[in-house]
Design goal:
The chain is built from five helices and four strands. By secondary structure, the chain is of the alpha+beta class.
Length: about 140
């Protein structure tokens, strides 16, 4: 998937470069949707747009309706941080704490099933995850 995205990005860059190289004196339209068969999505870029217009007897008149915009400025935004990093860290801490509680029950010589139940680790998957979270914290 990453390779396909990279190829599409390179193809788009080449299409823009070729169009810029072919332009004469005036601006021309680069129809990326027609060229790529679908609307193009730009991630982490903020565009400042304006509609083309001209003056006629001291009045500004739009002449393309809603079909065309000029890009006045393009600003690259910082990539968003992983949205769940903090939540995953909290989850791992809670799982490690459950495993420490489980070990505490074992240290007090409770049987394994009772210790797992009291530490809320009766589910085998949760128990395994808690073990790995505890092990990760101890590294």
């Amino acid at each position: 998937m990453f390779r396909a995205m990279e190829e599409k990005s390179e193809a788009m860059q080449m299409a823009i470069v070729q169009k810029l190289e072919q332009m004469q004196d005036g601006p021309e339209l680069i129809d990326l949707e027609a060229q790529f068969g679908a609307p193009v999505v730009f991630d982490n870029i903020r565009f400042s747009l304006s509609k083309p217009h001209y003056t006629r007897q001291d009045e500004w008149v739009d002449y393309v309706n809603e079909h065309c915009f000029y890009i006045d400025n393009a600003e690259v935004l910082p990539a968003p941080a992983a949205p769940y990093t903090e939540e995953i860290g909290n989850c791992m801490s809670q799982l490690a704490q459950c495993y420490r509680i489980y070990l505490g029950y074992l240290e007090l010589e409770f049987d394994d099933l009772y210790a797992r139940k009291e530490a809320e680790l009766a589910d085998d998957v949760k128990y395994t995850l808690a073990y790995y979270a505890w092990k990760q914290e101890s590294i």
